[in-house]
Amino acid sequence: MAIDRWDPFREVVSLRDAMNALFQESFIRPSGPPAQGGAGTALLPLDVSENENEYVVKASLPGVKPEDVQITIHGDTLTIQGESKLEEEKKGEHWHLRERRFGSFQRAISLPTPVDSDKSQATFEHGVLTLTLPKSESAKPRQIKVGAVKR
After folding, report:
1. What are phi and psi of 104, to 5 degrees?
2. How far is it, in rounded angstroms, from Cα 27 to Cα 105?
3. Residue 28: inside a domain, yes or no?
4. Which of 31, 40, 76, 130 has the most CB atoms around it within 10 Å of its CB?
């Protein structure tokens, strides 16, 4: 029987590998947060910018048709929701890797000020939804002129 020398770091390395595997498989993946229950609602990442007159919201929706997206504005709350449909599996087809997400998505955000929904515009090009949301007139800054008091 051979006697092995005890190495205290042997167990630490295996623990580190186990923790790495746990974090990679169980929690947040680089492609974004997982959908709840596999086919539930996934979070929709957004870019929101603002200038003096409007907000511009961009959302990446690869593989989603424009008719499968619903956009609503209620006061200062913007809601984007929709669904990306799963491709039909063909008989005799075997998957080696399947990471693309399918199912419903929804995102609601509150903007700092109300927007004019009647003048809002939406474009969809190359899988990117771009919303241009003009600020309501009441939300725009106004300059008040100071006049002298006449006596």
Report:
1. -85, 155
2. 19
3. no
4. 76
Answer whether residue 127 is part of any domain.
yes
Q: Which pLDDT band holds residue 20 (cuts at 50, 70, 90)?
A: confident
**Number of independent structural domains in the chain:** 1
Q: Which stretch, 15-29, 76-90, 103-117, has highest mean pLDDT?
A: 103-117
Q: Residue 78, Cβ neighbours under 10 Å: how many?
A: 23
Residue 101 token pair? 């997400």
Helix (H, G, I), strand (E, B) or coil at 97: coil
The answer to whether position 120 is within a domain reads: yes
0.85 exceeded by pTM = no
CB atoms within 10 A of CB 104: 14
Query: Region 91-113: what's the mean pLDDT?
Result: 83
Predicted local distance difference test score (pLDDT) of residue 90: 77
Whether 71 is in a domain gets the answer yes
Domain limits for position 68? 39-86+102-140
The percent of residues above 90 in pLDDT, for the chain, comes to 27
Residue 35: burial class (beta carbons within 10 Å; 0-12, 13-18, 19+): middle
CATH number at residue 61: 2.60.40.790
